[in-house]
Amino acid sequence: MQDQLIIRLKQQDRAAVGDLYDAYNGALYGVVLRIVQSPELAQQVLQDTFVKAWRNAASYDASKGRLFTWLLNIARNTAIDATRTAHYQHSRKTDNLDNLVHQPGGSTLNTDVLGVREVVNTLDDKYKSLIELVYFQGYTQEEAAEETGIPLGTIKTRLRYAIGELRKVFVAVLIFIVSSFAISSFVIDRHWGIGRDEMTNDEMTINDPISK
Amino acid sequence: MDLQSFIQSGLLESYVLGQCTRSERVLVEQMLAQHPEVRAEMSAIEQALEGYATSQAIAPPQALKGQIIGAIGREAGPLSTRPRSGGTLLLFQLLALGLLAAAVFLFFQKNKEAEEKTALSKQVADIEVRLNACDQSNQDLRDIINVLRSPETRPVKIGSGGDNEKLNTYVFSNKSRCKVLLDMSGMPTAEQGKHLQMWAIADGKPQSLGMINLQSLGGLQEFECVQGAVAYAISVEDKPEGNPTPTVVLMSGALVE
Questions:
Q1: Virtual CA dihedral for B78, B80, B81, B84, nearest 10 degrees?
Q2: Angstrom distance (rounded) from CA A57 to CA A55
């Protein structure tokens, strides 16, 4: 599915942008909003991100990473630039996040059907905040060391561990999703015969060559 | 570097986070290209972070989607001829202007050339006419010279100015070719309103050879000869077409065989 989207994007199929937006708008907006803090600015940044993605579709190289990574890098860089050019003064404290999340301009997505958020929240704070700083806010590991006062070596190890923990969560989630899909498809097919209209018994025997 | 150390090094995480140095990037991309295990590892890292970002998603306002699609709609398409930047647009405009100016210039140039060509053709035609006239004149002069050179041509002195030696008038007669040439160099100018007529005397009677044209080509005027002419005379007449008989004889001279 992602491959198709990439192909269409590279072919400059404008309809692909809608699908791209549907797939990633929430995840990207979450990151951008946390960086720029202002909903208006975040919306502008998100628009700029999609426009840049559209313009530079030719330069996306699938062998060097997933589509979302590419988009996130664009979004993050655009957001950081926006804070600089706007001379935006704000404190990078993550405890502001709750206020933003419940503002009229933004609402939590219902991605939590599978309780992912809860699982992620079980992750130790020090790992969560590190991912927050480095992955979302775009701090380099050196800058993160400076910001937090934690030695660079420790930062590196913690980051790797944090991502490892996340991987466990999301592999599990992925397995769950895939197996749920498989099971439900099987069940539906058995009961209702996807693609076939309901036929009476007589019709079924008449049409069935084996019964002759 | 062996695969396991590479994977444990944290370079892949840095790459996904966009925090590699240039040389680190090159190394990672090499490893990605060469080892499917490295690709799988990176994909897992990416998906984990992507999942985390999704779990922290915040929905933007509903209207934003339409706004963004509209913005994309205004972007250039794959076959658009819109130039990529303002500088290129200016270049195209200048180019178009230049081409237009060149076209206009060439058009006027062509017109001018056509006019010049017509003028030149006319000049050539004029020259040709004059050339033909020259050729004809040359031929006529050669004829006169031939007559004068001929041993059969006889000069006939028909008049003298008396005191004024310059007024010797000669006629050159060639009987076999039947040509009579009057030399203008010895001719007096006719008075206003008077005309000179040429005569040949034959059988005791004067016969008109025609009116004298003092502007004759080569200074010699040719007349038709009269058989049996023994003398020649010039008379002065009042009428431009002359008279059947001479009015006042100005001069005359006999042919000496």
A1: -70
A2: 6
Distance between CA atoms of residues B25 and A48, nearest Å: 26
CA pair distance A73, A182, nearest whole angstrom:
33
Q: What pLDDT digit, counting tens, does each position of A38-68 carry?
A: 999 999 999 999 999 999 999 999 999 999 9
What are the helix and strand counts (H, E) for chain A?
10, 1
Backbone torsions φ then ψ of B199, nearest 5 degrees: -130, 150
- pTM score of the predicted model: 0.51
Q: Give the position of tokens 């999340």.
A: A101
How many helices (H) and strands (E) in chain B?
Answer: 6, 9
pLDDT at site A87: 54
Residues of chain B contacting A17 with CB distance shorter than 8 Å: 68-69, 72
DSSP state of B18: T
Tokens of B126: 């004029």
**Strand partners for B181:** B172, B222
**Tokens representing residue A82 in the block:** 């926006």
- Chain B interface residues facing chain A, Cβ-Cβ under 8 Å? 8, 10, 13-19, 29, 32-33, 39, 42-61, 64-65, 67-69, 71-73, 75, 77-78
| ipTM for this model | 0.70
Could A12 and B77 be called an inter-chain contact, meaning their C-beta atoms sit closer than 8 Å? yes
pLDDT at position A108 is 44
- pLDDT attached to residue A104: 38
- The first and second tokens of residue A148, run together, are 């937090």
pLDDT class of B159 with cuts at 50, 70, 90: confident
Most confident of A25-29, A201-205, B151-155: A25-29
CB pairs under 8 A between A and B: 156
Under a CB-based contact definition with an 8 Å cutoff, are residues A66 and B46 in contact? yes
Name the residue with tokens 């979450």: A30
Q: Which residue in B has a C-alpha nearest to residue A105's C-alpha? A: B61
| Residue A149 structure tokens | 């006062």
Would you call B60 and A111 a contact, using CB atoms and an 8 Å cutoff?
no
Give the helix/strand (H/E) hosting B205: strand B205-211
Return d(Cα A165, Cα A156) in angstroms, integer: 14
Residue B231 CB burial class (10 angstroms; 0-12, 13-18, ≥19): middle
